[in-house]
Amino acid sequence: MQLLFYSFFKSLVGKDVVVELKNDLSICGTLHSVDQYLNIKLTDISVTDPEKYPHMLSVKNCFIRGSVVRYVQLPADEVDTQLLQDAARKEAMQQKQ
Amino acid sequence: MLRFPESSLDEDCTLEEEDDGLIQEEDEIDQFNDDTFGAGAIDDDWQEEHKRLAQLDERDGLGLGNNIPGKKCTWLVFSDVEDRGGEGDLAESLARLILEADPAIAGVGAAERPGPSPSLPPGPSPSSLLSYQQQQHLLRRGTAPMAQMNSHSIWENSMGFGPVSVTPGLVTHMEDSPLMSIIKEVGLPKRPPQSRNDEGRDLSERVPPPRSSSPVIGSPPVRAVPIGTPPKQPMSHALNHQIHHPTAVHVRAPVQHRYPPPFPERVSPNTLLNIANSPLCRGPFPPGVGPVLSQIQRAQLLNSQVAGFPHGGPAPPLLPGGGFRPFFGGPPPPLGHRMGLPPPHGPPNHTPPIRHNTTHLHPQHRRMLTQRMQNRGGDRGRTGLDRRSRDPYSNLMTQKEKEWVTKIQMMQLQSTDPYLDDYYYQNYYEKMEKRQERERDSSKKEHTTKLITPQVAKVEHTYRPVQFAGSLGKLTVSSVNNPRKMIDAVVTTRTDDEEKREKQVWNKRRQILYTVEKMYSLLLEVQDFEKRFVQVPEEDREALLEQHKTNTLQLCNSLREWDDRVSDEQCVMIMSVRKGKRLISRLLSFLPSPQAAAIVMAISRNLPALAKKDKQDQVLCWLVEPISAVIQSLSSSALTDLLQELQGSEGQLATVLHNKFGVTLLYLILSEGERMQSSDPNCQLMDDNRWTELVFSVTRELLSVPASSLSSPLFTPPNLLSLFSRYVDRQRLELLQDKLQ
């Protein structure tokens, strides 16, 4: 099972992230939850870039389907890159077996 | 309702066939005729007409074999033309129409019936093209004055449903045969009228079945509880039904047939609720009864309840026996799900906590989250409530339903080996725990909460592809579990002798990276050894130990040459890549002591080269920590050797001092020597002069080197000065002190 990034995002629950979607919409919010498909639930969202998406003004929480995400911008100090590399290596080893 | 005799439908009707068919299946035609012409149809006229026409037929000796396309439409015409309102008049007028219109027949008609209606034109006038609608209109009106009715055009039009341009010439030569055939058709059905009564029974078969009276749109309600329905709630079965199958729109109609409408319109939610509940208490409707509340209505109902609460109202008298909604009495959240709204008698300003759907958060993580939410929840308490009380779409799902859905999602995430599947998360929080333990005072004695992940028993699924007994071959089915090789790719190493320099370099780099990765996988295995050792049962422990030893050995060998000495070249190669440096830094802690020492030696020996290669990355300092650990385990002679290596050839020390890592390393070594000397009086450091000499040269270098080229170390050990004080005079000591700062 591809749970590497699920595990990774789980450790970021509660942190502030910016999710950029494939339709160029960027949403800033607190990561509320994530699942194995990397669907993301954000709370307290705000559209980061110029508010040319006014229809989002009233939205406080949102659910984003994982397949429409282009980027997720993370706080750098919350990420342990070494650990992530190790996790990736382990996953690669697992898949080989 | 048009029922054609079978034959006429299938082929282009030839009149003869039609005739035969018609003759044979007169019964059907009869009824059909009854349908089309109605009870009021006057038979007599038809029979008379038929006779007349039949005579005409004999007289003219018409060939009836003409194939007129689209004949089958005539039936259609007849039924349309008839227009059930017209009845007898219509039939009459039609017949008249035909007769009058056709010149041939008109003549006959005139002969036989001398008095056609004066309103009708006496003879064929130039053909006027009338639209079908007009013709219909005329026909209906019966005796309306009409222009020359091109008989042919009538029937032609009927097929075309519009004005038809037919050349008169065409008409004249064609008009007989179609007309005849039509008349034949018309006439024939009336031939055995008396047999009609016998077909009364058959009528029911012919008539299309009565319309199905089941007005249920969509699939019928499923009686049995399908797999995966949400848990039964202590509410009405009917409501449950609705909840389970929100897609099936059960029209109220059937209910109304049998029962009085259970819920009249425009009833307040309170009374609605009372009504809903009273049947509950009495006894439910039979299971077939449709639901009484739509989803939205239910939500609205609940909203109105909820809206009452934030104002601190009393518990509603609407809820009988606590059975209606598990809204306030939800089961305790399982597995640390933070689901479930707080009871309404909590602080009224408190927004419900955001429920995190992640199973099993580390307790610290959870604490962090709750803190966060408390910080934020206070600000938004009021406005949130107001918003909620007006939200028409809340409460569409009950708490249990939400939990049920989440449980399904989360079930998929339960893993048999959490350490493997959830590697990052587990380790991240372990590290955090360690960090916190370090930061905490030992006197505080607080126990850091540990994360205990529940483990699901591993179920072995061996996939066996589909096989049929006795079949010769195997099915080539490729699926997710059994992917088929698309391409048989064979790896061939390039034996090209003439390779460009760049390619060589790249290949070498790739080779290095590959080696590094291989070593990393070994390293990770070694790292995990301890953990696995604890978990694995007794029998397997020996095997695990063996494997661990092999791994370690492999690791060592990868850095060695054939004669068991540490390969400098290999080390340098690995260290030329950033990943390699990381690898070495982690590796050092796992290697046996002599091995580790050898590597450190190799590093210090080759420090200038390494420093040069590290110019871009500047990550040599990662090595400081493990190396200091190694140094502290060195013997005095080894330490001296190390210092010697570091100084190496002429001029090396200068380079060393220029590099941050080098300086740090040097200081570490010196500091360790000093520690040895001061702590252990029997230290053999001073036994030979090497140490002293080396320290002297270091001091010389330190003094001579300009302050700018001396890079500052990562940290300065405090006992350096005391070391130097042994060897140099005060003046120099002060200078050194300045340098060290």
Protein described:
Chain A: Its main location: nucleus. Chain A: Belongs to the snRNP Sm proteins family. Chain A: It is found in: Nucleus. Chain A: Residues 4-78 form the Sm domain. The complex is a heterodimer of chains A (97) and B (741). With 97 residues, chain A is an alpha+beta fold. Chain A has helices at residues 4-10, 81-96; strands at residues 16-21, 26-34, 40-47, 61-64, 69-73. Chain A has a 5-stranded antiparallel sheet. By secondary structure, chain B is an all-alpha fold. Chain B is 54% helix and 0% strand. Chain B is built from 34 helices and no strands. The radius of gyration of chain B is 51 Å and the shape is elongated. Chain B starts with 5 loop residues before the first helix and ends with a helix. Chain A binds chain B through residues 1, 3-4, 6-8, 10-11, 13-14, 30, 32-36, 41, 43-44, 80, 82-84, 86-87, 89-91, 93-94, and chain B through 354, 356-358, 361, 365, 368-369, 372, 376, 409, 412-413, 415, 420-429, 431, 517, 520-521, 524, 582.
Q: Which whole number gives the mean pLDDT of chain B?
A: 64
Tally of DSSP helical segments of chain B: 34
State the end-to-end distance of chain B: 110 Å
Distance linking N and C termini of chain A: 13 Å
Helicity range of chain B: 40-55%
Low-confidence stretches of chain A: none
**Oligomeric description of these chains:** heterodimer
Computed over alpha carbons, the radius of gyration of chain B is: 51 Å
Determine the fraction of residues in helical runs of chain A and give it as a percent range.
10-25%
